[in-house]
Amino acid sequence: MRLMSFLSLLLSLALPAKAEVEVHATGDLGVVIERTTGSVLIVDQSDMDVLARVEGFGDLSHASAVFSPDARFAYIFGRDGGLTKLDLVTQSIAGRVMQAGNSIGGAISDDGRLVAVSNYEPGGVRVFDAQTLDLVADFPTQSKTIGLVDAPGGRFVFSMWDTGETWIVDMSDATPDVTKVSGMGANPYDALITGDGRRYIVGLFGEDGMSTLDLWSDAPVAQRILPGYGRGEEPLPVYKMPHLEGWALAGDRFALPAVGRHELLWLDAQKLTELGRTKTHGQPVFAVARPDGRHVWVNYAHPHNDTVQVIEAASGEVLHTLKPGPAVLHMEFTARGHQVWVSVRDANRIDIYDTQTFEKIGEVPAETPSGIFFTARAHRIGL
Amino acid sequence: MRLMSFLSLLLSLALPAKAEVEVHATGDLGVVIERTTGSVLIVDQSDMDVLARVEGFGDLSHASAVFSPDARFAYIFGRDGGLTKLDLVTQSIAGRVMQAGNSIGGAISDDGRLVAVSNYEPGGVRVFDAQTLDLVADFPTQSKTIGLVDAPGGRFVFSMWDTGETWIVDMSDATPDVTKVSGMGANPYDALITGDGRRYIVGLFGEDGMSTLDLWSDAPVAQRILPGYGRGEEPLPVYKMPHLEGWALAGDRFALPAVGRHELLWLDAQKLTELGRTKTHGQPVFAVARPDGRHVWVNYAHPHNDTVQVIEAASGEVLHTLKPGPAVLHMEFTARGHQVWVSVRDANRIDIYDTQTFEKIGEVPAETPSGIFFTARAHRIGL
């Protein structure tokens, strides 16, 4: 045997065998908020598996996530004002900023360059460079700031609990351009943007009804809708008011929680007028539409939070009732809709269901899981 | 050293190291078809750059691509019947099958497990395991087979030029279930599925008008629409008939090429009835909607194929005319809509435009580029 071959043979015997490498790509990954432990799971949707647990996210008792356009980074917004950049490739924290006090909600710009975070204290929105987390703009509002979303054209939109204003901030040029719209109503408590980025819909706590803005207008003006949608016959405290993330667009209609009633409302998606109601098992919290818009999956507030119902959008009929377990907090569909992942907080588990047959097809262990966010959100306006 | 420790050490040296997990970001990648050279570029949309050129795809004179759910693999369908699995992470071909003769069109199932390819010769659809490219099912039709799409629930839908039938194949169980619908019309030449996976719309060459199926129905029946949409006053040859990939959904309406006229048609997306027309610079080939649905970008057939127009969906008005260069073949928006990439075949270049300002913001060199496909398509029904 020649010398080089002999040396190669010796080396191959002496060195440890080469490690097997499992390659994952970010297109089908997701993050799961572990609310009690301040940690985040990185999951692989296709493999129905956990890739890693990452610690150090602070107070995740109310948390959300957005993704960079390449689906490499998740930006996790924590209740304590923490903004944490999670690298799904290295499975570690790439940056972290304590950007304010009591804080709910964040968004990423359409080009992925800016991350905005709203806060209750001191009140306002701060905008950060998505790469470095350097502060690039600060919008103090002297008000609890709610309903922060991204809109096409490099914009962020948010509203003020105290003043009833909505601000539209255009970050696409060197100098931010701020349009202030007043008269949205008494005590906006939450808002959403429609999937086409056109309409900004605001929930009001201080009066019955909701307000909407047409973001395609050069000078948007508040329009009132749903005059009967209010705090209910027995006025609810604000923390029991339905969150607008609980709205779902299913085909030509929205599904949304009724206020203080065991009902799901249906709205014509163009006119925003009521089409009808479905009686439900409990007070709906989230309605989530299967991506084809044919069905809506609904979870409920305590004490009915062990139950999920599947409702057909066209007819409003309940097709199926599931009992995943104690404290169902969140549901997330795969992007093409073939599976739905359901967090069952008090069973420390995520259940995975087939969305055609409603059969449970898998599960993933998680510590008090709440929100589940798949990377496909990187590619959708407002998410 | 104690015996057990020594044995453990020996074992750890002898056994392969535990599998390492490597994650790669694939969310903002894309593939560009280089039609003359049978090669494919892998591009990075955020960086506006080419990552690699990969050779060996055969005849790409008419080619398309779909993506695996993790956005790791692109499946490229070539004119010569080639089905090639491209690994975007290793930037190399991971598998290749010459699955038939003359062939146009392919699709991937909603769960990413199966890839289907249709062909003109011998006529039919073949279904392959997406991982191994093993043949798992064969549907001979004795007809040129066209209009292959995926539909929710693990289904594939395709139509027959010779017999005017549409087949709906459900692959979700061990045995495929085939529903055959007759009477779609004379000589279906192309088809599309709406983004909600509900309606399958078929273009007819042998008669004026189109046909549609409601895929939510248990027993779908062909419905005629657009009775005036035919081969035109001077009947066109089939290769000049507008391809249904040229349709765009913009908000509440479809934009589609008129037949043999310099016009864009607008259809009510619910009723599929005509709303109006916009006079255009040339015979439209592709209308592509900006993801928020506010604008549609349109390119034209030779000799007007150096021009692109931006048309406002709500008003039907032409907002802007661009002259990217000779032979604009394809346009692809980033997922949230802030950029559009435009292939300029005879300038060997892809132009990149800002979709708010219409300014050119970058370019990428490419050999006779035609189709551009971003990985965000992995997450959309029918793409």
UniProtKB/TrEMBL annotation, chains A, B:
Asked whether the keyword Kinase is assigned, the reply is no
For this protein, the record's Gene3D superfamilies field holds: C-terminal (heme d1) domain of cytochrome cd1-nitrite reductase
Which GO terms label this protein's molecular function in UniProt? Answer: nitrite reductase (NO-forming) activity
Under SUPFAM superfamilies, the record lists: C-terminal (heme d1) domain of cytochrome cd1-nitrite reductase
* Record-linked InterPro entries: Cyt_cd1_C_sf, Haem_d1_sf, Host-pathogen_enzymatic-act
Please give the superkingdom of this protein's source.
Answer: Bacteria
Q: Which keywords accompany this UniProt record?
A: Oxidoreductase, Signal
Could you identify this protein by its name?
A: Cytochrome cd1
